[in-house]
Amino acid sequence: MKNPIDYEVLYENAACGMITFQPDGRIVYANHTLLNWTGYDETAIKTKKFPELLHKGGNLYYHLFILPLLQMHSAVNEINLEIRTPSGSLPVLFSAVTGELREVEGKVINGIIFKIAERKKFEAELLNEKNKAKGEHENQSLVLREVAYNQSHLVRAPLASILGLISLLEENDEVNPDNKAIIKMLNISASNLDKVITNIITLSAKGQGGL
């Protein structure tokens, strides 16, 4: 007999931020992961609108591009944003689908937020290494491959856990249609990221003669 899945614990402590808000931006739910990132508690974040969590020009970008796309296509995928945090800002990938909740009248927007701060840092490190090694192409390539290989493995460990969890959820017949849509979207985003990381590891291993 399979052990029952505690969906509340899964939702609240997921490796990604999860948020549900109304089309006017009013926040209905946010999981503990996102609360930790933003520094809000559950009561405080419900007094905010989703665009208010965004840093700098993200608020304007949301109203000009993201919201119209959600209204036209009922979904958006892997949009680069920055959310406000107690220490500044956090680069993220935002995906969302529209749906319905019994507790809320009308449509709601269910969003998933992946933290990509380490990837941004890694990209900056790559650029810095490239600028410092213009005249040393061979040595530069070796360093970059080593960094890519090591960083990709660090990212792949938690990503494998996420993909395994998604697989368990997809096999569970008790998941309602709205949650299935969120799980499917999460699976697409995580699988795409896994493919990119796999390619990086493969190319790095070839460059190093099979690390």
TrEMBL record:
Which Gene Ontology MF annotations are present?
phosphorelay sensor kinase activity
Query: CDD domains this protein is in?
Result: HisKA, PAS
Q: Cross-referenced InterPro entries, in alphabetical order?
A: HisK_dim/P_dom, HisK_dim/P_sf, PAS, PAS-like_dom_sf
Instruction: Show the catalytic activity.
Output: ATP + protein L-histidine = ADP + protein N-phospho-L-histidine
PAS domain residues: 5-71
State which Enzyme Commission number(s) the record gives.
2.7.13.3
Primary enzyme class: transferase
Q: Which Pfam families match?
A: HisKA, PAS_9
Q: What positions does the domain Signal transduction histidine kinase dimerisation/phosphoacceptor occupy?
A: 143-209
- This chain belongs to the protein called histidine kinase
- Native organism is Mucilaginibacter polytrichastri
